[in-house]
Amino acid sequence: MFQLIQDDGRVGYGCLDGPVVFNPEAFVLRGFFGRPLGRLRRRLALGGFTYLGLLGPDWLVAVAAVRLGYAANVFGFFCDLRTGRSWERSLKDLPSRLVFPLDPDAHAIHYAGRGCRLDLAKSHARGRLEVEAAFGGRLALDARFPFGFEDQPLRVVNPSCGDPRRFTFTEKAAPLVPETFRAVFDGRELKGPAAAVVDWSAGYFNRHTNWYWGALAGFLEDGTPVGANFAALVNESYYPEDAFWIGGRRERVAQVIFEVDPDRPEGGDWRVFTEDGRVDLRFRPLGGRGERAWLPGMKVNFRQLAGLWRGRLRTRDGREARLEDVPGVAEVHLSVW
After folding, report:
1. Residue 128: phi, psi to the nearest 5?
2. Mean residue pLDDT across the chain
3. Closest CA to 102 of 75, 122, 76, 128
4. Would you place residue 156 in the very low, low, confident or very high pLDDT band (cuts 50, 70, 90)?
5. Which InterPro entries does the record cross-reference, listed alphabetically (predicted)?
6. With 80 as the cut, is the pLDDT of residue 309 above it?
7. What's the CA gap between 284 and 145, in Å, rounded?
8. How far, in Å, CA of 104 to CA of 102, rounded?
9. In what order do the strands lie in the sheet with 256-259?
10. Residue 14: beta bridge partners?
């Protein structure tokens, strides 16, 4: 089994296609001038987050959990892609209130408090991903997915925001088609077909973080499942966090380029493309959520948008897939945490 931090203390950077021993305790976290940091600084710097977005023909239900060394955040989000109507419940709490095991291959994330609950369990050995969530009596999600290494998730290890003294492991996958699901918002049961995008990331994050992110999950006009994950400006200094999946087959691509106004990302279509032309997509925002906060030692400014993707994807062997209004998300994120 691949050991993330090697016996000599170095990080095993790369694109990984199998199980991982996630052992951040073996990593020597250093400051600006290379001095090893103490136990408290290490504990505060280590974090993880997970996101699951289930996308129907005209709706998005998303749940997420973020655990930093000094705080936790859990949220549930709904967006009606027909009307742009959005609803969110976001809870900030002590990190001890969120159970977030740092194991990318098998974990059971749990939070309960203030009328909300989130349980998200994954086991690659069993090939299962399960989520149960309820937020404020308005949003509920119960879904079961087959999810194992045969689904070819994108697992990448990079320096955090280009800083070789920190690292981030991330796993992305789309589309995950549920075996069963029940999603309800304000008493209305949401109808499929549906597919999900998932993201699990952990490591010693860089305190100054900036990214563009886009993902989609749905079906081509002939019913073939299609999904994608794209990222820029964050951890892809060595290995891009960019791939798409068509019919269960993963296609890694070169670094993507985002054309978007970072100050008004909801103001018009985004263009996301690669220099070699294998990805050429446009994203139309239809609704979203965001936050601008300035707290002692922390600043956050982000917009996460739900909308529709269209354009084309080209496989390595030259086959082309046309996307017409496939649901997905996109985000502009800037933070000091």
Report:
1. -135, 145
2. 94
3. 122
4. very high
5. DUF2804
6. yes
7. 28
8. 6
9. 249-252, 243-246, 225-232, 208-219, 320-336, 298-314, 279-295, 270-274, 256-259
10. 157
Listed as own residue / partner, the contacts of 115-121 with beta carbons closer than 8 Å and 24 or more positions apart are: 116/74, 116/76, 116/89, 116/91, 118/63, 118/65, 118/74, 118/76, 120/50, 120/52, 120/63, 120/65
Q: Which residues contact 194 (CB under 8 A, 6 or more apart)?
A: 54, 55, 56, 177, 178, 181, 183
Buried b (16+ CB within 10 A) or exposed e, 94-129: ebebbbbebbbbebebbbeeeebbbbbebbbeeebb
Structure tokens at 318: 């030259």
* pLDDT reading at 83 higher than 80: yes
Q: Nearest Cα to 194, choosing from 210, 183, 207?
A: 183
| Three-state DSSP state, 141 | strand
Rounded Cα distance, 267 and 260, in Å? 9
Q: Which amino acid is at 243?
A: A
One-letter amino acid for residue 9 of the chain = G
The single-letter code of the amino acid at 304 is: Q
Least confident of 125-139, 203-217, 274-288: 203-217
Confidence of residue 69 (pLDDT cuts 50, 70, 90): confident
325 CA to centre of own chain: 21
Distance (Å) of CA 161 to CA 211, 238, 258, 261, 319: 9, 10, 17, 21, 33
SS3 70: coil
| Rg (the chain; Cα; Å) | 19
CA dist 246 and 279 (Å) reads 13
Instruction: For residue 193, say if its preceding peptide bond is cis, omega within 30 degrees of 0.
Output: yes
Phi, psi of 82 (to 5 degrees): -80, -40
Per-residue pLDDT reduced to its tens digit, 217-266:
999 999 999 999 999 988 778 999 999 999 999 999 999 999 999 999 99
